[in-house]
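Retro notes (design track)

What went well: tokenization of the new backbones is finally stable.
What didn't: we kept losing track of which sequence belonged to which structure.
Fix going forward: every design gets posted as structure first, then sequence, in one message. First example under the new rule, 373 residues:
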């Protein structure tokens, strides 16, 4: 005799936040109706060409009938270690302290699960943050607290603390003292610190530091993970290319689970990543493009009466008119400009909008003209 399930299956998606972008349909329609077309600054999706050196490497590796390695090729791991040292002054990493991921969103969404966290564990997420930190904690069934300072945690010891400097959405940079404090505190308690360093190469008015930098870690990477995306600095969002680096013991544990789960970066993408990590020239050019767009857009927003807060680094301007963010969204949509409401990133964002620098020079110029008209 067959017995029916007594407990209906709960869809996994029911435990996740609603995908908020669907709520922008009305303002998007308004912005689209502008006679000179929409300037879409609502998402951070890169628009600039992929550097030829990277495309060539991808094409040259297209004959790849076998499975890729989960750990990444030795060349990829070496290139990542070297790039971290050259670009960000991170020393003391060995090749087994680096692991490629299928874009860092994938890693962030699964990190608590990969680390074996569950309902008894607490994950600390910045108060204004990239939504996937929370998604990852929910997928693991872990508890979540939004906090920017350790004192907010009280006596509770979390399993995992997220840092994101420069921040999405605010562009705020955490100083060396703050980073050292978190690292020291976490080290005493055996807490893993995952530092999302997606925008580390895009410092404007402040110099962002990696959690692995010797001035923060004193050369001891125990319990530390730095998450690096190639999506923004190399315009490789479409390739799905990133890596995690840090404590070799934690990286080995991630590798062991990812091997079983088939979380492998395709071989041609691994080859493209090697090319991207070895070549600093295209990365500097990309940075210069964003710097130029920021130089135009920031004063234009200010001249239109918006106050730009934080925004000292990264790919976004965190702006406010001192009113509910949906009103600012509507005001900008009237001018054909679409931005993201700050409330997407946490309850403290209700009066801000996030303005992305990821549009073509032509579209940025159109936005500037409309804002300064
Ligand atoms: C803070 C932050 N982390 C991670 C990501 C994910 O990047 P990717 O999955 O393209 O590596 C993003 C993307 O916008 C981001 O803003």
């Amino acid at each position: 005799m067959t017995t029916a399930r007594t407990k209906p299956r709960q869809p996994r998606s029911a435990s996740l936040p609603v995908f908020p972008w669907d709520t922008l349909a009305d303002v998007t329609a308004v912005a689209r109706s502008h006679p000179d077309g929409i300037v879409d600054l609502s998402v951070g999706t890169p628009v600039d060409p992929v550097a030829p050196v990277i495309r060539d490497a991808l094409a040259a590796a297209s004959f790849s009938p076998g499975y890729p390695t989960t750990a990444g090729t030795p060349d990829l791991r070496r290139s990542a270690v070297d790039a971290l040292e050259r670009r960000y002054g991170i020393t003391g990493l060995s090749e087994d302290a680096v692991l490629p991921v299928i874009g860092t969103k994938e890693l962030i969404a699964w990190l608590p699960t990969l680390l074996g966290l569950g309902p008894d564990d607490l994950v600390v997420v910045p108060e204004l943050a990239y939504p996937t930190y929370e998604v990852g904690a929910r997928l693991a069934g872990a508890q979540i607290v939004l906090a920017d300072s350790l004192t907010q945690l009280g006596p509770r010891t979390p399993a995992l603390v997220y840092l994101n400097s420069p921040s999405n959405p605010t562009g705020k940079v955490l100083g060396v003292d703050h980073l050292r404090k978190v690292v020291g505190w976490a080290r005493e308690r055996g807490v893993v610190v995952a530092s999302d360093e997606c925008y580390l190469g895009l410092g404007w008015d402040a110099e962002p530091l990696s959690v692995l930098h010797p001035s923060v870690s004193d050369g001891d990477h125990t319990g530390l993970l730095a998450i690096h995306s190639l999506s923004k600095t190399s315009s490789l969002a479409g390739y799905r290319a990133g890596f995690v680096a840090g404590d070799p013991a934690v990286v080995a544990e991630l590798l062991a689970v990812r091997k079983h789960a088939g979380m492998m970066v395709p071989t041609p993408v691994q080859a493209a990543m090697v090319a991207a990590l070895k070549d600093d020239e295209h990365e500097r050019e990309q940075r210069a493009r964003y710097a130029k767009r920021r130089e135009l857009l920031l004063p234009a927003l200010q001249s239109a009466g918006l106050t730009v807060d934080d925004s000292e680094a990264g790919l976004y301007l965190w702006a406010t008119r001192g009113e509910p963010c949906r009103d600012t969204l509507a005001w900008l949509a009237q001018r054909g400009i679409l931005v993201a409401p700050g409330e997407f990133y946490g309850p403290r964002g209700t009066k801000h909008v996030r303005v992305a620098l990821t549009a073509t020079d032509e579209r940025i110029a159109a936005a500037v003209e409309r804002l300064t008209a």
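Added context from the reviewer: The chain has two domains: 15-49+282-372, 52-278.
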